[in-house]
Structure formats: structure tokens, C-alpha cells
Amino acid sequence: MAGYIINLNSNSALELYIKNGVYSTLLSPPNGYWRIHHEATFADYATMKPGDNIYFFIDRKIYGIGELVNINGDCKFLNYPDANKPLLPPYSELEKKLLWNEGQGSINQRWICVFKPSPYFFKEGIDMDDVLASNPPVFRMLRAFWKVSFIKVDDDENQALIDIFLRRNKNILTNPKSHECFFSDYINHHSLLSKKITPDYLFNCNDILKSCADGDRLSHEMALEAGILFQLSQKEPNTIKIFGEWDYLSHQVIASPFKPIDYMDKMDIFGYSYIKGFKNTKSEYIVIENKKDIARLEDIEQLMKYVDWIRDEYAFGDYSMINAFLVAYDFSNDAIQNLTNIIQRNYLKGRRPIQSKTWTGLKLIKYKYDIRSSNIKFEIFV
After folding, report:
1. pTM, two decimal places
2. Helices (H) and strands (E) in the chain, counts
3. Residues 6-35: pLDDT tens digits?
4. Which of 10, 100, 260, 315 could serve as a FRET partner for 189 with CA atoms 20 to 30 Å apart?
């Protein structure tokens, strides 16, 4: 399973969230429109699923282990009806409708996720340096944890986090004491939430997309990114038909050697699937680059840099494991005319016998926003 590492600013917040088994990100006011960081946070929530792990980060230390759980069919919800609209209603109108209420600022806590200790949240946090040193080759996203509310880590990185927590606390596992683990009353609190949740609280992307739609285009690439992630996670038929089904999906995944965070290349959408029936064996990888308007030749070249990065870092030389998509409203003539020459990759597979292979697995996808269904529609262009 994947993992989420959430940045908090106080121990009191840590104890509060663990006690109730609920977390909600505090956002800045939207002022009538969603900004990129709002849409990015929504995209982070969009791929959450029951069984994923959750950790908290305060003052260099990571606290765990938690697990997202299913309540009324999901592990994430709108904190109040119409929370996806970029409006700022008075607290007095929402106070009784809030699923999670920390006071007047909760009108800017738009989305919540629910979790339980798994097996416990240990009171002794682990220093970031100790975590990174415990399995250096595996940690990628944790090294890029900077200026964000939380990050998502893949299955391998998540397992490395679980490993160090369990090793550090193996003497506690069989007989935990109150001074060693945080108290959680999540069962009672989740029961109260379950009674309050109606269809108006179900997590969806409709108003996020509608708020930045310009006819059948979207005015923000991050909204396009969030929409694709949500529709893939919900297995929307047209989206699955174009991109396929994936066991792990994330966004803004680093794709360059380690350097100052602000200068790192990041893949818009990255993911992978497992061989069916074998959850430890990865089968294929996906990378998607998004352009809200017209994609040009340089966008294909950028996407191919990501393909080459995945070949080296994840697929170990095997291009056949990689599926690449460039999504845009339209494509320039130079992009179309030079596509084949730019994307072709020749590689060798096997040893005895060696097989000479050619990869041309990048597809150009046109998108349109459909106001009637509040979905993004896709079609294969090339």
C-alpha cells in the first residue's frame, strides 16, 4: 500500500487527530477561485484509498503508524456540502454541517480523511535522518518533502517506513502501555461520522473542474491533473479505456537527480500496476504530462526525459514496461510531424538470446471538459 506523510505544526494537533482518527488540511481562503496549491491538495486526497498508511511529521520527527479506513464506502469526504466550490460561507451557516470542526477556521478545511492506528501510533517519533539512513536507496519522495502539507510515498517507500517503526518498537508490539502509544477513540468518532455522512459529503471533482472551465477547456493544468487522477481512481469508463487501470497513482513525483527542491523536475502523473494476483511484482509504469492548451515539440521532449528516467530508476532498462501519454487540448504541427523520430527508443532485452527491441509507446491524447457530465473526456489523437 501507499503512504501519506502529513506535516503538522504542534503536538496538540498530533494528539487531536490521532484521538479522533480524522485529518483535514487547513487551506488558505479561495477568494472566489481555486489556486494551484488548492487543486494540488485536492489531487493528493483524490488517490487516497482504504488500506493506505498515514504518518505525521513534526519538527524533524515522523510519527506512525496509521491506516486509512472505509466509512460508508470511502476514506475521504467533503467536510461539508459544496466544500469544492471556491466560496467562503459564514461559519454560522456551516457549524452544524461540518464533519470535522476545529473552530471558525474549519470552513477552510475542505476535505477530510479517516484512519485508525495500525497497529499503534508510537509516542516516540523517529528522526528524519534515521528514517532516511534505514534504507537509503528506497527513499525518493521523502527527500523532497518541502513546502507542502503532505506527500505521498509509493509501496516500497511506505514499507521501508513501516519496517523502521516496527523494528524500533518491537518490544512494545505485544504489550503496549499508555505511555508508549497515543490514545485513540477512533471507533466512537467514526461511528458518529458514519451517521452524519450523506451523498452531499461524497468526495468528487465536479465543482473543482467547473470553477476553472473555459468552455470545453480548463484554465489550470493542476485542475486537469487532479481531474485525471480522480477519474482514474474512480475507474471512470472513458478514462480507463484511454489510460488503463493502475494500482498506484501519484502526482508531482520527482524525476531528476537530487538537487535543490525548487529546481527538481517532477512528473505530472506517475503510477504503476502489479501483475494480477501478485501484489509484489510490478508489471507496468505510467507517466502523463498535461498541457491545458496546445502541446508543442518541447513538451514531447520533456515527457521523453521522464520516460528515460523511469527506464533507469524503475524499469531497469526495459522500455516495454512504460506507458507514456501527453494530454492536451490540441497539438502543434511540429509536435505531430516530429513525434515518431523523437519518441523512438532502441534497446536490448534478455541475455541469451539478446533481443533487439524498439519502443514507440507514447500516445497523444486530446481532452475536452464536458459541462453536462462535469467530467473530462479523452480521445486518442495519435
Report:
1. 0.95
2. 12, 18
3. 999 999 999 999 999 999 999 999 989 999
4. 10
